[in-house]
Amino acid sequence: MRSIVRREFVFTFNNVNEALTFMEMLTSKIKSKELLIRYDTGSGVRVWVSIQGEPHEVELYSMEIKRVYNDIKLMRGKFGTRAYDVSLILSKARLSAAIPIDLIIDLLQIKGINAELDGSKIRVVGDVKLEDLIKLAEDISRIYNELIDAEVSAQAKRIIALYALLMSKGVKDSIKELLDKGLLSKYGDSELLVLSMDYKHALSRLQELVER
Fold first, then answer.
1. Overall average pLDDT of the 87-107 stretch
2. Which Pfam families match (predicted)?
3. DSSP H helices in 46-93
């Protein structure tokens, strides 16, 4: 005879948006029909989560539920550091082209924000919200979409996207100015645009241009 158990959790949140994000993350990670979620905003924002199944299933689901809630707490920030799950950013962003997720880190760092990619999470020091990261991902994707058919190397594409966003320029103007400034060049006799230096030095040059 199958042994069925049920576990219930109650979580509190700072606002409705935080609770909705939690529920969205939970339902994307747990596909069980026995997962029940309801929320109440009467006295604070609370979410009730109930999961039912065989003991080993419920134990695994319970661990995942707690992990998702912990991810939400990391987004609130502790000691000035916030952590955001990359999969959540990409699922919420309306991307028109695939992007290298670490380009968001490069962009934040050039802006003077302490950021790093730590496994599946983006960690930032400061008041950078989830919506900010989603917007950056969408902006980078828009530029990458414009460059889909362009003869541009992968590294050059990264620098073009960064320059365009940091300087609020269009793609064509960005390419022209990067050529003029010596960051981009044509490869041999071809039309292929490549970096005139390694990527790390190109980032340093970009930093100098932004600070002028």
1. 93
2. DUF2067
3. 55-76, 86-92
Residues 124 and 25 in one domain: no
Q: What is the pLDDT of residues 34-56, one digit of tens each?
A: 889 998 877 778 999 999 988 98
Instruction: State the residue range of the domain holding 19.
Output: 5-76
Count of structural domains within the chain: 2
Segment 115-131 shows an average pLDDT of 90
Report the distance separating Cα 9 and Cα 6, nearest Å.
10
Give the three-state DSSP class for 178.
Answer: helix
The answer to whether 132 and 122 have CB atoms below 8 angstroms apart is no
Asked whether residue 111 falls in the same domain as residue 59, the answer is no
pLDDT on residue 3 = 82
List, in order, residues 6 or more apart from 98 with CB less than 8 Å away. Answer: 141, 144
120, 167: one domain: yes
Q: Is the dihedral of CA 178, 181, 183, 189 positive or negative?
A: positive
Name residue, tokens 């073009």. Answer: 160
